[in-house]
Amino acid sequence: MENIKNKKILIVDDEPEIRKMIEGFLRKEGFFRIYLAANCEETLKICHSIKPQIAILDVMLPDGDGFTLLSSIRQFSQMPIFFLTAKGEDQDRLLGLGLGADDYIVKPFLPRELILRLTAILKRVYTTTVTQQLPVFMVEGCTIDLESAVVRSNRGEQPLTAKEHALLLKLYENRGRIVTSDALCEAVWGGDYYGYENSLMVHIRRIREKIEMNPSKPKSLLTVRGLGYKLMVKKE
Amino acid sequence: MENIKNKKILIVDDEPEIRKMIEGFLRKEGFFRIYLAANCEETLKICHSIKPQIAILDVMLPDGDGFTLLSSIRQFSQMPIFFLTAKGEDQDRLLGLGLGADDYIVKPFLPRELILRLTAILKRVYTTTVTQQLPVFMVEGCTIDLESAVVRSNRGEQPLTAKEHALLLKLYENRGRIVTSDALCEAVWGGDYYGYENSLMVHIRRIREKIEMNPSKPKSLLTVRGLGYKLMVKKE
DNA sequence: CATAAATTTAAGGTTACCGTAAGGTTCGCT
DNA sequence: AGCGAACCTTACGGTAACCTTAAATTTATG
Q: Nearest residue on chain B to A117, judged by CA atoms?
């Protein structure tokens, strides 16, 4: 999943030489799941059955143009689309209407250029999506899952509200360290946090009721009188 | 978590297709907290309630233009703003006013371009880790951690109070040098510290009870009779 | 538009920290 | 040694900072 080289790539062009040429370059680069189509009909069929991770579309096709094809694809998929266009061909339209394209390149082009842009898209779309996650961590007696915004402990699973989530995130980013009340307010209410000090306390209390055995004798979310609060997490 | 992908993004455009399109691309990139608005009114409401970390504003809106909207937002927030503008539209004004927009792009545009610029802004603005950097250092026999306001030694961990914390910070900033009682009082009580000399002594005593083996024969926090106090730290 | 959930406001209670004071000790000078 | 000044040490009461609960208000949801 992490490796972009095993992503499925669909190449759509009505000229067999062009298809072959692009396929060749991609294989040389290490891509191996390559599918070919010569027209819109085939393209849609393949997109439905194979579900490639990216498609390279020629703008001119025997049974329709790339823009209409793109709209059709967009009906059921958000997959990235890369356009091939001939010089002087309706580039305004490509940009204006076809705002759903991720990138395009003008024929003739350098293979290197195509590869670079293609892998750039794949990297952006498929590596970051997987990596981006909110922290899931443990404190004394329970697990705090900010990804799904729940607290799991032996007495079951409890959901976190938006503010609780934001507070815990800020506290976790500074785990083990003191976070001033000001910093916490800022994290939740933004720049103008004057007057929210009491709200903060109530939210802290709510969090404690969810993560602490005894909310009045906290072991994980500690008060540091005069300075702020501190979240103690387990090892890691 | 310094992850840019979990920043909240607001998209403002009156054309639903454009909104959907941008949203689609952002989601593909891994952004997931995306909010939409079609006019100024909605925008202000969302900015107040959701507090997004960045907004993408179309310059032309049904109930006002982007510039006025920007000024309204600037009344209460310094969040970065990204403008979408149609070709030939008021670009002089956009540039001339200088008005606090972080960047803009001319429609039609490639999503790639938008994504790149947007992430550039987010990185620039939000990776500046405001992680407060307080000293953690060692003295004879224990570690003083001002980040979490605790003293660790072989007899366990002891918390520091607010005043103790402030005093130790001032002393550490002048480690190895004499700090006058006046300077210490100033650091803790601010401008008018007259009458707190005895309090200072008591606090010094309490610190010594936490960091010294024998508080009455201090080795780290030394008295310099007639001048003040001096904190001796281990090399570093 | 009604209902539930989340958030804020408000008010009374609790406690840990801080300042004061009072008596003791050490230092430095004559 | 004797004396005063500077500093130490201990304990206690007041109070600001924080807790806790419930009710009021806002926001989300069907």
A: B112
For residue B38, give the DSSP letter: S
Residue A75 C-beta-side C-alpha neighbours within 13 Å: 9
- Domains defined for chain A, CATH in brackets: 4-131 (3.40.50.2300), 136-231 (1.10.10.10)
Integer-rounded Cα Rg, in Å, for chain B is: 27
Alpha-carbon distance B148 to A177, whole Å? 4
Q: Smallest Cβ distance to A178: which of B25, B29, B148?
A: B148
Residue with tokens 């149609």: B86
A57 alpha carbon, distance to own chain's centre? 24
Strand C within 7 A of A212 CB: no
Cα B172 to chain centroid distance, Å, stands at 23
Give one word for A222, left, alpha or beta, with left for phi > 0 and alpha for psi -120 to 50.
beta
- Cβ A76 vs Cβ A48: under 8 Å: yes
pLDDT in tens, chain B (236 residues): 557 787 889 999 988 888 888 888 888 887 878 888 888 888 888 888 788 889 999 988 888 888 888 888 888 788 889 988 877 666 655 554 456 678 888 777 888 788 888 988 888 887 766 666 899 999 999 999 999 999 999 989 999 999 999 999 999 999 999 999 999 999 999 877 788 999 999 999 999 999 999 999 999 999 999 999 999 999 76
Q: What is the DSSP string of A135-193?
A: -EEEETTEEEETTTTEEEETTEEEE--HHHHHHHHHHHHTTTSEE-HHHHHHHHH-S--
Backbone angles phi and psi of B73, in degrees to 5: -65, -40
- Residue A78 sits at the chain B interface (C-beta within 8 Å): yes
- Between β-strands A142-145 and A150-153, what pairing exists: parallel, antiparallel or unpaired? antiparallel
For residue B111, say whether its CB is under 7 Å from any atom of strand D: no
d(CA A80, CA A122): 8
pTM: 0.70
The complex's ipTM? 0.75
User: What tokens appear for B134 in the block?
Assistant: 């307080």
The closest of B53, B50, B69 to B118, measured between CA atoms, is B53
Question: Under a CB-based contact definition with an 8 Å cutoff, are residues A57 and A18 in contact?
Answer: no
A50 and A11 Cβ atoms separated by less than 8 Å: no
